[in-house]
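Extended Data, panel c. Modelled sequence:
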Amino acid sequence: MMGSTQNFDSDSDDSTLKNLEGQRIENISGFVMQRIIRSGFSSIFLSLDHPTLDSGISLGFLPCPVKIQASTNQGFLLCTHTLPIYPSVPRYYVCKPATNQWKQIPNPKARYRTKAIGMVVLSSSPLHYKIVRFSQPKFRTNRDSFRFNNLRCEIFDSKIHAWKQREEVNLYESFLGFNPAVSACGSLHWLTKNHHRKFFTLVEYEGNLALICKEDDQRFLELWIIENYDRKIWKKTHIVNLEALTKELPYITLTGFCNIATVALRNGIDKLTFFNLKNGITNSLSLDMGYDAVETFSFQSDFEPYVHESALEDSRGNQEQEN
């Protein structure tokens, strides 16, 4: 199933493009913050690049309300919609909010419960992406007790438009954290849970895998970059004293990482503060009053419509028939 007017195989809405051309916006970066509401989930897009402009970014173009499951560095979101009559069989959508393009993809095995999911774009012209899903059976017998630590792995490849099962991964499901997957160095990464006093956030920094850490009782924030990915060697590149900032904003919590050197900090429930690690400059954006975000996804996108692989194949076929 595809969107009737706005999908990967069609052009973007003319009015949207005209609006964007008038504002001269080429790229946008920031965060998508998602919360639980009575009817399901709701999300808002917050941008540091163009805080005074109407970027037109929302999920209102989708055919139904959705929950965001994953984001990519190219502006694509993986979303699901749960039908009330089939709560255990959600529909899966891939979309690019900046161009109002969307596509429904096949479901993975519904009898397995999703534990973690991530998406990575491998090529943008034509669009080629993969989705990795870790899951577990909803019920296991005592005979399967030796497999309690195993996670089922499935990969969706947009080239073949299908899911394929891979070997199970031996990992305690309780070790998986709730933070979204991070795409860096050609792989997807998840931050596992820890029982230390430090707060960690896994991020992508200038194409590399990075880690932001802060101790509960300390006013210092550290940025670590993986210097050698194969050998797993990390290097501390930034140490930031937050004492002056916490005097002004005493209730901040680390939310994520935006752009190349900007940390997002939540101040209560109605404000998001962007803090530049290099120059110490802060900018704040107001959230809807009482907007209690339960998940935060980094968001980077251009406004260039994408062509899907299937659309490219269709156009080639038409040309061959004409010749």
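The two ends are 30 Å apart (CA to CA). This feature is highlighted in the accompanying rendering.
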